[in-house]
């Protein structure tokens, strides 16, 4: 049944959070009755429900479900913050997280930071107010305010997607540095010397910084120079991959192969090569990172780095839930170099 907006109750609308006791007093009922109206309305008469909802509408009262969970120790929520919902690697991680949580009767609360440390702080603050069992964060770069808030909250946190020292004691991921270092070594072993590299924007992104540094160090250790114009940054999209391929191709001293730190960019470059009539890998090699589905479906198939996206989520869930097989707070997973047709 829908309830109409009640007439203004004098003195009811107030600043600050309205307590359930205030609603009960104004409605002339007990706090328990207000709770029943919200949780089990069928147990309360229609007349009483309407009276309570009139006061709720006027006061702006919001039920404090987190306090209820804390008091009864029944919170079965795990929160996760990802930097984007447009990249399927994070969707795979969330799927692994959700599937493991579901097995144990927990629900997942999802937030998208849009690669913003400030947005991550806001999400973490909101999530903590709901008293989750734990929080999964992507990466290790956070505002000081976020780190302090988590330390003061006494909530278990697992950081993911890298192998840096964790801020909160738990991590599951892989070495982005090693993954890019080894891909460069793989390409050098296949007689490539002029290698271009495209990462995500490195500001505030420890994964992107590690991948870029792994590339630079591998080139240096191999005795190879890197033109400044061969190091680029880009958000991940097919159109950006196409534009980057054009930019590399226009250079007089162009690389022999381009290492894109994401398969979406690499696939966009492959599509652009087809439009331009370029042969891969005869005219230019293209390699990616992540081993998304598109890597094995585009033509030619992409050489790439395969990372354990689903496993990251699954293990993070088991860390937070304190599973008996998760004695280690630090879990480093492996990666694989997958050689396909887009590079020689």
UniProtKB/TrEMBL annotation:
UniProt cross-references to CDD domains, sorted A to Z: HTH_LacI, PBP1_GntR
Classification via InterPro entries: HTH_LacI (IPR000843), LacI/GalR-like_sensor (IPR046335), Lambda_DNA-bd_dom_sf (IPR010982), Peripla_BP_I (IPR028082)
GO molecular function annotations of the record: DNA-binding transcription factor activity; transcription cis-regulatory region binding
Positions of the HTH lacI-type domain: 18-72
Entry-linked PROSITE patterns: HTH_LACI_2
Gene that specifies this protein: gntR_2
Keyword entries, A-Z: DNA-binding, Transcription, Transcription regulation
Protein name listed in UniProt: HTH-type transcriptional regulator GntR
Recorded superkingdom: Bacteria
Source organism (scientific name): Grimontia marina
